Structures are given as C-alpha cells and as structure tokens.
Amino acid sequence: MSSIMVLNGPNLNLLGTREPETYGHETLADVEAMCRDAASALGYDVEFYQSNHEGALIDLIHEAGSKMKKGELLGVVFNPGAYTHTSIALHDAIKGTDVPVIEVHISNVHARESFRHHSYISPAATGIIVGLGVQGYVLGIQGLVAKVTN
After folding, report:
1. pLDDT at 23 over 80
2. 116 is in an annotated binding site
3. Which UniProt keywords apply (predicted)?
4. The domain that contains 90 carries what CATH number?
5. Could you list the residue range(s) of the whole structural domain that residue 127 is in?
6. Catalytic entry in 44, 49, 105, 120
7. Which of the following is catalytic: 23, 44, 49, 83?
8. Active-site annotation holds for 23
9. pLDDT digit string, tens, across residues 71-96
10. Residues 7, 97, 2, 13: what is their CA dihedral angle, to the nearest 10 degrees?
C-alpha cells in the first residue's frame, strides 16, 4: 500500500497548549489520528513526522521524493509552521524532488501579522489550505489524493 507523508514544522509539537485561541485545543497526536483515519479511508497509510529543525524537514522531503519515484509514496501534506515565511531551502527541496506537496496552515495566516502573509512554500506547492483548523490536514490528504490520482 502506498503512503502519504504528513510533515509538521516548528512548534507544532505544542498544539493543544500553544495559543489555543489561534490553533485550537487538539494535540499533534489528535491530528495524527485524524490523518491516519482520513488516509485509511482512501486506501493509504500515513508517515507522520514533526521536527523543529529545518534540515530534518529537508531530509524528509528528499526521502519523500525518493519514495515517490519508487511508487511507495503519493505525496506530502506539509504544515511548515514559521518556516513558511523564512525557508528558501524548503522551497528548493520541494522543487528539487518534484514531490507533490499540499501546504496546510491551521490559522488564516493572511488575517494575522503581515510577516505571515508571504510563503516561500506556496510557489512550490501543488495546493494550499489555510485557516480551516486541524481539519485542513484531512482536506489536504483528500486534496492530494484527488489531485495526484485523477
């Protein structure tokens, strides 16, 4: 069975306790369970990761590209957190591997501070889901499957 990689960037390990008025009360474990259920319903496994380190996320994107070329991975659902607004390296990793990526943000970054309005990830992404809470991950999985398999 092919899988979907779900990547989470910095501070997402604090979900449920960090600014719950912005990010909600669900934990990262809750998000993982939602993702596994959503992917399973569509016939896919989930590889779920979180890292506060940019290089580790780049390595995982490289791994995703290799697995995709072998037919083991459909693509990536990625919440890059604050790296969204700072990381040209993550953009380049996505472009360099040609892996389909759905960028997900729990909050509506465009309704927040102006420094959050620009994404280095978006130009490399296959699709973007913003501001729909943790349900955005489920929609990201569904969107990835629809986009890549149709």
Report:
1. no
2. yes
3. Amino-acid biosynthesis, Aromatic amino acid biosynthesis, Lyase
4. 3.40.50.9100
5. 3-149
6. 105
7. 23
8. yes
9. 999 999 999 999 998 899 999 999 99
10. -10
